[in-house]
Amino acid sequence: MLDAIDHALIARLQEDGRLGVAELGQAVGLSPSAANERVRKLMAKGAIRAVVALADPAALGLGITGFVTVTLVHGADEAVFVAAIQADPSVQECHHVTGAANYLLKVRLADVAGLEALLKRLKATGVVARTETMLALSTPKETTALPVGAVP
């Protein structure tokens, strides 16, 4: 179970993963060595999975953000689909969902031609019956930070 200090450490690292242990400790009222030990334990427990750099998709030429619902062929081997999307770098997220479709993908692509190529690759797996794509016109909110502490 995580305590308030763990939550505070995670919240600060979500804001800026480059913070040093001295700054982290000061922010939560711990010595640098105690903050370092707490972060190490949080990583060992899996509460902090990784500390990463967040790249700007536009700077990388990925101007298209799409959301694709995927309905599989009835009785299809889902492992075939899962392997295909795990191997595809344009698929940023994949969620097994409730509703009419089986999966919801978040994809990042350079252009519509890239989207068309992705859809062809998905259908070539032989397990995809139908896809429906929505393109993001704008993105008023996008965050990787999880709500820490009291969830609203």
TrEMBL record:
Residues 2-63 form the HTH asnC-type domain. Keywords: DNA-binding, Transcription, Transcription regulation. This is Lrp/AsnC family transcriptional regulator. It holds the Pfam family AsnC_trans_reg. The keyword Phosphoprotein does not apply. One of its GO terms (cellular component) is cytosol. The keyword Membrane does not apply. GO terms for biological process: response to amino acid. Coiled coil: none annotated. GO terms for molecular function: sequence-specific DNA binding. It comes from the Bacteria. InterPro entries: AsnC-type_HTH_dom, Dimeric_a/b-barrel, Tscrpt_reg_AsnC-like, Tscrpt_reg_AsnC/Lrp_C, Tscrpt_reg_HTH_AsnC-type_CS, WH-like_DNA-bd_sf, WH_DNA-bd_sf.
